[in-house]
Amino acid sequence: MIAFESVRKSFGEREVLKGITFQVPPGQILFILGTSGTGKSVLLKNIVGLLHPTSGRIWVDGDDVSQMPEEEMFPIRRKCGMVFQHPALFDSLTVFDNVAFGLRKHYPEYSQEQIAARVRECLSLVHLRPGVETKKPQEISYGMQKRVSLARTVAVSPKILLFDEPTTGLDPVTTNAINHLILELSRKLKTTSLVVSHDMQCALDIADHIIVLDKGEIVDQGSPAQLKQSRHPLVRDFLREALDAEGS
Amino acid sequence: MLKAARNIIDDIGGCVLFIKDVLRTAVRSPCSLESLCDQIWRVTLQSLPTTGMAGFFVGAIMTVQFTMQIKAFGALGYLGGLSTSATVREIGPLLIAFLLSGKVGAFTSAELGTMRVTEQIDAIRCLGANPLQEIILPRYIGIVISSFFLLAAGLMMSIFGGMLLAAFFAGINPDEYLRHIPTIVSPFSIGTGLFKCLVFALVLASVCTYKGYTTTGGAKGVGRSVVSTAVMTMVGIVVTDWITSLISEAALDMFGGGAL
Questions:
Q1: B10 touches chain A (CB under 8 A)
Q2: What is the pLDDT of residues B192-204, one digit of tens each?
Q3: Size of interface A-B (CB pairs under 8 A)
Q4: pTM of full prediction above 0.90
Q5: Range of the domain at A84
Q6: In chain B, what are the domain boundaries?
Q7: B contact test, residue of A41, A91, A115, A168 with most B CBs within 10 A
Q8: Largest CA distance in chain B
Q9: B34 CB near a chain A CB, below 8 Å?
């Protein structure tokens, strides 16, 4: 379970998160929606210790990670897999070595055969065909890079999946495919998933719970059915856009 | 003005703390030998032809300059010694280090900066690895070793360049040119030159890895890092050149000897 308790985060004078409080029960898919610059990615990075909150507490499966030192974050990061906005693949490594990277760090006891088998399994989970593992990231399309990034994250069997705008920069067809992959992986691997996005349509389709952020504050939250009844202007804007996209 | 001074102090302080972290990582969790050798190979291969060529012409320039000066005194026989002394002790390491700051420094800073802004460094941390151990340490040690080797190779090429130009420009036999080198260039002079090479290599590795690793702000940020790497490295090289010259001078006074 992930829990935020009055979390605030400032960069100098600028306060990005203003007292965020929410909980994500195990196995749930939570979408965090908001316009650009509202602190969605900052919120996600605080969970895995890439950033630390200015005040407040963040709990991951009962561990307070809010001010946890870097060297103690290892077990938390084994539990939380993060898919970044960019594919963030290592240019100098092949697709195989990219997916195997986390496995080699988290499971040093694995043999080469075990690693190879797990890499193949993860690549097939994200619907990538055999043969792609020998290629370098720059030799495959952006959509495929996103899938490899997803495979790399699930390879270490995390209990929690964090997605930072996973469909940014993708065409509608690939966006749809990635969104369904998130749903499929979350259900198949029984993970708790937090997805930062500005795609209301996708959130309505696959989320169990949706939080809407605006200027660092939660302005509305609820199930997709509840959000559809929201009177908040920002939520109405998101819903209108989703309806337009569906109509077109 | 005040802001610029504060930024410089921030940069120096940040760089010192960064080096401390890198050294602590080197002691606690050293990088793999494979990635270190890969870096040494890449940096050396990338810069050897340019460094060799630069060294050759530095030696050639010094020979031409000294020829014009000492011809009037009829002391052309000492050309090899004088030219090599100036090149090995001062001009050679300085100019070749400037060249390396543009080539190795800018490349490394841009590479690390791009890794930072495309979240590759965050991904390394999330996958349970230490970015200092995985990507900084091999580059840092690799650049120090390669740059030292490249600077030394450049100095050797400068002797060759000086000798060749002396033959063409002043009609001095290569044997004659080489015979007078030990007369003026003592082992202490060579030691001073190599000491400078090592210090410049450390400055180069520290600045480019620090600026690349701390890049912020997308493509523009990478550009800013590359520019400030070039500026900071060159200033650092000039300042450390002055300090190493003072140290060499003091060492010479302490241990005596009439070497130039």
A1: no
A2: 989 999 999 999 9
A3: 49
A4: no
A5: 2-247
A6: 32-255
A7: A91
A8: 70
A9: no
